[in-house]
Amino acid sequence: MTRPNISFEFFPPKSLAASFRLWDTVQALAPFAPEFVSVTYGAGGTTRKLTHDAVTTIGKATGLNVAAHLTCVDSSREETLAIAANYAKAGVRDLVALRGDTPGGGAFIPRADGFTDSIELIEGLANAGDFNIRVGAYPETHPESTDMAQNIAWLKRKFEAGATSAITQFFFDPDTFFRFRDACQAAGIDGDRILPGILPIENWAGARKFAQSCGTQIPAEIRQAFENAARDNCHELLALAQCSELCSDLLDGGVQDLHFYTLNTPNLTRDTCRALGIEPEVKLQNVA
Ligand code: FAD
Questions:
Q1: Whose CA is nearest to atom 18 of ligand 1?
Q2: Largest alpha-carbon pair distance within the chain?
């Protein structure tokens, strides 16, 4: 089997301790030679500077291709395009363009002078420069989609607006991804441009909560297994088996890219990569 392309998502640190955690995660995962890594953008632009600093620092220190997330929330078009222009000036050409959510929940309300949705944002960025624009995709539909057909029609519009690839929300059943990819292909979207997003379950209670907020279904057997594992104190073993099996099934089904939501904790992502036969490329200068 050819080596799959892998990529890792990080979030920007908000404290000194969190900066060290992020750095440890980057150090642990960079040797796996990811295609790219990405850094999220806090709800409502709350991490605007932190995201920028994390993106540029990781890029400079590791030479990795770093993608900066950007949302439409609480910014004028001018401000958003200025952020993108700053990235271009710093040599960052990869963006993940999202509409974003209103901080604290509630319906997204665009600013009168802001981008009204992700399509407008993608068009704005595509016209502003030579960016590689990635976007979000929702295999179990987005909570605001009326149905799967509308969810896919919207994704198709993102590609027509200038997106080059889409990263999915996380899911736990590989068939969920395959059904979505097939439906996208039937709608004229190239399935190879849809990267499955993988959430390694480092923390079961956290993953359950996260899944509920995104509308991700947890199959009954996974729920039962994690509850038993908590009781029997063997969470780590189960989490590695579950994540590796999901990735392995995706690769068997023709997937070429795996995007890991690391939540700035590297161990399970690293162990999953190794279980899949993806070994770190250790160079002498990395260990000297
Ligand atoms: P879209 O896909 O544009 O919209 C979601 C759905 O709503 C669409 O499928 C469509 O059905 C419907 N919809 C939206 N607008 C319209 C419209 N005008 N007309 C008709 N239908 C419409 N959030 C952050 O705050 N920061 C991040 O860094 C971040 N990173 C993410 C990374 C990935 C890979 C993913 C999948 C999500 C991320 N999110 C992030 C969460 C994301 O911002 C939310 O899920 C948000 O609610 C939707 O953003 P989007 O661009 O994917 O929305």
A1: 117
A2: 55
In a domain, 270, yes or no: yes
H-helix or E-strand spanning residue 260: strand 257-261
Residue 207: name the closest of 175, 232, 170 by CA.
170
Q: At 109, is the pLDDT very low, low, confident or very high (cuts 50, 70, 90)? A: confident
- CA distances in angstroms from 147 to 142, 252, 267, 287, listed in the order given: 9, 28, 36, 51
CATH number, domain with residue 222: 3.20.20.220
Which residues line ligand 1 at a C-beta cut-off of 6 Å?
40-41, 43, 69, 71, 96, 98-101, 117-118, 136, 138, 142, 144-145, 150-151, 154, 167, 169, 197
- Please tell me the pTM assigned to this model: 0.96
Predicted local confidence at residue 102, as pLDDT? 84
| Residue range 166-194, pLDDT digits in tens | 999 999 999 999 999 999 999 999 999 99
d(CA 269, CA 159): 29
> What pLDDT score was predicted for residue 104?
76
Mean of the pLDDT values across residues 42-68?
A: 90
Amino acid making up residue 147: D
The count of domains in the chain is 1
DSSP state of 280: -
Please state, in angstroms and rounded to a whole number, the distance separating the CA atoms of residues 125 and 44.
Answer: 19
Q: Is residue 281 part of a domain?
A: no
Tokens standing for 54? 């994390």
Residue 269 lies in a domain: yes
